[in-house]
Design goal:
This protein is mainly alpha-helical. The protein has a three-stranded antiparallel beta sheet with strand order 1-2-5. It has a two-stranded antiparallel sheet with strand order 3-4. β1 and β2 form a beta hairpin. About 25% of the residues are buried.
Length: about 180
């Protein structure tokens, strides 16, 4: 994963840099898989709204957050004209997609801290967390081997979700 032990030809700084590059590559794969899967909402919007794919693309791109896009899909699925089996299938997939959003957001809305001495990589959240009596800013979390495995698992779940969305598109005859 991200642990790169230094050897006779690699200085500790080089090992740390290699580890950072591996994390960035992993985050890139997470983003690629996420984007490919989220874009399948275009087909679901087209099918549920009864429009062609070009119109669904305009709707998708006009809604500029994942939350807005998923809300649109969920609301279309909850309309009376949507059969219950179809509604349940769509809501199951959008729920699964949103479960993956937290990890994706963590790695997209942070800065990366790298300690060249020990090679430790951390994320620093770039948002304010409002609590009941205070706020938290700049929460730091390490990106270690366990976290790398967590990202790999999320990528696998998104790949499965991508296949499930395509199956839904085919099953209900949404515009492909």
């Amino acid at each position: 994963m991200i642990s790169v032990p230094p050897d006779a030809t690699m200085m500790p700084e080089d090992a740390g840099e290699a580890a950072l590059q591996q994390v960035l590559l992993l985050v890139g794969r997470l983003n690629y898989t996420w984007t490919n899967t989220e874009s399948l909402l275009i087909h679901v919007i087209a099918g549920l709204a009864g429009v062609d794919k070009d119109v669904a693309v305009v709707i998708f791109l006009t809604l500029n957050t994942t939350r807005a896009r998923v809300d649109m899909v969920n609301r279309l699925a909850k309309m009376e004209r949507c059969p219950d089996d179809q509604r349940q299938a769509v809501l199951k997939l959008t729920t699964a997609l949103m479960r993956e959003a937290a990890l994706r957001n963590r790695y997209n809305h942070c800065i990366y801290s790298f300690d060249p001495e020990d090679g430790q990589i951390q994320t620093i959240m770039m948002r304010i967390q409002d609590r009941k009596h205070d706020i938290q800013v700049g929460k730091m979390q390490p990106v270690d081997d366990a976290e790398s495995r967590n990202i790999e698992k999320a990528i696998g779940r998104l790949q499965d979700l991508n296949r499930d969305f395509w199956a839904l598109v085919r099953e209900y005859g949404y515009p492909a």
